[in-house]
Write a structure and sequence with these properties.
globular, Adenine-n6-DNA-methyltransferase TaqI, Chain A, domain 2, Methyltransferase, Cobalt-precorrin-4 Transmethylase, Domain 2, disordered N terminus, three-stranded antiparallel β-sheet, about 40% helix, about 20% strand, alpha+beta, about 375 residues
């Protein structure tokens, strides 16, 4: 279970291109001769640098001044003590390719720690370090992730101070308890907002799709027309509909196809209320009484037309004064005797790049065998 949860945390980094760490390195220096007594910090500090532990299990830093040998830190679900600078490499990064704050945040994440541990044998050698495959988004995205990392560090330090005060004065620390409530609230809003912004910066892919709406076409319904039989119709592109209810069903089905395809692939996120051009349309247009009613309807059609045993979670996030729905879908790997996810118990879809394609016949048979093999290997 622990490994499964850790695996899920990898998804955001897996959306970034990967390159060898060696490609962003200008130089790697050992700090084995570092002498804190003679204050060599000013002579050693270089621009766009990270400090990576080659011995033991230590935090990554961006600044020598941040070393705290006697301080305990939480990293990758463990508590570790700070270590001495002598046990570190100083890695100077190419500023045209990498932001030190992002690299540091990544290496201190569960994903980054697992990456380092997969190549190290007792100690981390320079060649080990250069061989690591590093998820590397564009510089602008790196800078924003680094900023989030700094904010998170500030929050953690604030929480540590609150923990100390409240543990000593659990009854009388009312101000600290109120502050803790504010911090918890702020963390939730920051997390949701930043996750959505990260998605918006990306293009549609095998694990990400944008839909302007669940039911209501954007920016509005097409004008009604009268066909040669005297019947009212609505045209959307090459498609013709006899009623707005048919349009609703068509748009809902497009969202459900994406969810089924994510289930049958590596999982993914469906963003409803945002156009392909990243224009926030909002779910308010959908004419539901409120956000809870929207989520209830979405859950019902997923349960009724796909199934209620899959891991599909939905939430509403505010963005530019619009409400956006994020549907997070975990990959579904059938066990022996089970079938892939279907829409209406009929059609199987999977992702092909940014598309959701139906699969049938021999291709479906091969797909079922391949998914069974995936289950055996996990």
């Amino acid at each position: 279970m622990e490994e499964e949860q850790l695996g899920r945390s990898y998804s955001d980094f897996e959306t970034f291109n990967k390159i060898k760490f060696d490609e962003i390195v200008c130089e790697i220096n050992s700090l084995s001769q570092y002498d804190q007594k003679h204050d060599q910090k000013h002579n050693l500090e270089k621009e766009n640098t990270v400090y990576i532990s080659w011995k033991g299990f230590g935090l990554c830093y961006t600044d020598l001044a941040n070393f705290e040998p006697n301080q305990r830190h939480r990293i990758a679900n463990r508590f570790v003590s700070g270590t001495h600078p002598k046990n570190y490499f100083q890695v100077v990064l190419d500023k045209e390719k990498a932001v030190s704050g992002y690299v540091c945040s990544y290496l201190n994440s569960s994903h980054g720690v697992s990456n380092l541990e997969s190549v190290r044998d007792q100690v981390l050698t320079e060649s080990d370090l250069r061989a690591i495959m590093l998820p590397l988004p564009p510089l602008e995205v790196q800078s924003e992730i680094a900023l989030v990392g700094r904010k998170l560090g500030d929050i953690l330090r604030e929480i540590e101070g609150l923990e100390t005060n409240i543990s000593l004065n659990p009854i009388t620390s009312k101000n600290d308890l109120n502050k803790l409530d504010l911090v918890v609230s702020a963390i939730g809003e920051l997390s949701a907002s930043d996750r959505l912004k990260t998605l918006i910066r990306q293009d549609e892919s095998i694990s990400l799709e944008f839909k302007s709406s669940l039911q209501t076409p954007f920016p509005d319904y097409p004008p009604a027309e009268i066909d040669e039989k005297g019947q009212q119709i609505f045209r959307m592109g090459k498609l013709t509909f006899k009623s707005k209810a048919q349009i609703h069903k068509h748009l809902e089905e497009a969202c459900l196809k994406t969810i089924v395809a994510f289930l049958n692939s590596r999982g993914g996120t469906l963003v409803i209320g945002l156009t392909n051009d990243k224009v926030p349309a909002g779910i308010e247009r959908e004419k539901f009484e409120n956000s809870d009613k929207f989520l209830l309807h979405l859950t019902q059609i997923i349960n009724n037309r796909i199934g209620n045993w899959f891991e599909v979670d939905s939430e509403i996030i505010e963005h530019e004064e619009k409400k956006i729905c994020l549907v997070k879908v975990q990959s579904y790997i059938p066990k022996k005797g089970q079938t892939p996810a279907h829409l209406d118990k009929k059609t199987v879809y999977r992702r092909s790049g940014p598309r959701s394609d139906p699969i049938e016949g021999e291709e479906l048979a091969r797909f079922i065998i391949d998914r069974a093999s995936d289950n055996e290997s996990t």
